[in-house]
């Protein structure tokens, strides 16, 4: 009988899935060193060696089922692997598993049961098979009311995914808004959503700019208000001129169609992550040594 603590120890040493660790220990009568070799021979433990690599490519994807939706970002090291069928299967199966769950955090999602292991085990096994570091970076599970609609849009084959929730409009209007958000990169839905510290920082910058232009403090103060409205148009979805009709903003577009925007989830693959700089000439030089 192989103990759970032994399986855990082997998992920590190799990064392999729990099921693979159990099989390795059973095949080697519980000898951990032999089990490590067994996993290496099968090409499974190599997944652990990829843990420190940068995975900033991948796919952003969405799944909707009735009143539930899941949006996620799954990362790989290269864009080539993001187009791989094995990787795409990993994304689809992860979406299907999360949508049936009550997972709220990344940790909870990774520990969700999948086949004979967990989602984390599934990712580790695909890492070993594909040969690149793969990771679930983030997700959101969203439940809407019957009076709400989902609008989803995937751009550039999964480089950007946007999920919009609207109250009172149909899904076509919600999708139009999702397409707009993909193109215009808003950070918040409304002015009210902008955190106070973000607003104060921007006001301070704008005031400094005005004073550097030679304006007195009291005039600079008045100028800030006009310029802050421009700032809102850059970062707030509702305030942006609608891409299909620049004469109205997105809030008005939703209102003209009988509703309002209640939520936005916009995932752009690799945003905010350090990306590996490839130098082809250096790579060739290394190969020739």
Structural category: alpha+beta
Strand order of the largest sheet: 1-2-5
C-alpha-based Rg, rounded: 24 Å
Strand content: 15-25%
Low-pLDDT segments, ≥5 res: none
Order of helices and strands: HHHHEEHHHEEHEEEHHHEEHEH
Please bin the fraction of helical residues: 40-55%
Overall description:
The chain has 289 residues and is an alpha+beta fold. Among the domains are: 4-49, Helicase, Ruva Protein, domain 3, CATH 1.10.8; 53-143, 2-Layer Sandwich (Tetrahydropterin Synthase, Chain A), CATH 3.30.479.20. 48% of the residues lie in helices and 22% in strands. The protein contains 13 helices and ten strands. It has helices at residues 4-14, 18-27, 32-42, 46-49, 79-82, 85-99, 106-110, 119-130, 171-184, 196-212, 217-235, 250-256, 280-288; strands at residues 57-65, 68-76, 113-114, 117-118, 135-143, 148-155, 160-167, 241-242, 245-249, 260-268. The strands form four sheets. Strands 1-2-5 form a three-stranded antiparallel beta sheet. A three-stranded antiparallel beta sheet has the order 6-7-10. A two-stranded antiparallel sheet has the order 3-4. Strand 3 and strand 4 form a beta hairpin. Helix 10 (196-212) crosses helix 11. The protein is elongated.
Short summary:
This protein has 289 residues and is an alpha+beta fold.
What are the salient characteristics of this protein?
Tetrahydropterin Synthase, Chain A, elongated, Helicase, Ruva Protein, domain 3, 289 residues, alpha+beta, three-stranded antiparallel β-sheet
